[in-house]
From TrEMBL:
<dbReference type="Pfam" id="PF00364">
    <property type="entry name" value="Biotin_lipoyl"/>
</dbReference>
<keyword id="KW-0092">Biotin</keyword>
<dbReference type="InterPro" id="IPR000089">
    <property type="entry name" value="Biotin_lipoyl"/>
</dbReference>
<dbReference type="InterPro" id="IPR050709">
    <property type="entry name" value="Biotin_Carboxyl_Carrier/Decarb"/>
</dbReference>
<dbReference type="InterPro" id="IPR011053">
    <property type="entry name" value="Single_hybrid_motif"/>
</dbReference>
<feature type="domain" description="Lipoyl-binding">
    <location>
        <begin position="60"/>
        <end position="140"/>
    </location>
</feature>
<dbReference type="InterPro" id="IPR001882">
    <property type="entry name" value="Biotin_BS"/>
</dbReference>
<protein>
    <submittedName>
        <fullName>Biotin/lipoyl-containing protein</fullName>
    </submittedName>
</protein>
Length: 140
């Protein structure tokens, strides 16, 4: 396990700790094996560090759409793979309609329309990987 060198009264001692279980320590001093039993009050409990995360203070803002804009872009909220596309160019959709399914971190996320309109362009295809903030569908 660990090796130590001690100097006592001008004499050097090489100490190797072989094992440590409960209050029994097996060690070698200058090649001679010893079994040492520690007093119960000297045995300290092993401490395992605990990971503590500070809660995030950042608030998640929903994606805001400019209502005065004539074109609306549906962007990927997170990176993932397109599993299915539920609309085609020219379809008229209303707010809340399912547009496509995006798989991210082994979960299926249904991407819905936040605004009514007509599908002007579809910039993705089934099986394609998309990055966060990538434009997937454009509405007119």
């Amino acid at each position: 396990m660990k090796n130590f060198t001690f100097k006592i009264n001008e004499n050097n001692y090489g100490v190797k700790i072989v094992s440590h279980e409960d209050n029994i320590i097996e060690l070698e001093v200058n090649g001679t094996s010893y079994s040492v039993k520690m007093k119960e009050e000297e045995v300290k409990a092993k401490k395992t560090p605990t990971l503590v995360r500070k809660p995030s203070s950042a608030t998640i803002e929903p994606i805001k759409i400019n209502p005065s804009s004539s074109n609306t872009k549906i962007i990927a909220p997170i990176p993932g793979v397109i599993l299915s596309i539920n609309v085609k160019v020219g379809d008229t959709i209303k707010e809340g309609d399912a547009l496509l399914v995006l798989e991210a971190m082994k979960m299926e996320n249904s991407i819905t329309s936040e605004k009514s309109g007509t599908v002007a362009a579809i910039n993705v295809k089934v099986g394609q990987q998309v990055l966060q903030s990538e434009v997937m569908i454009e509405l007119a």
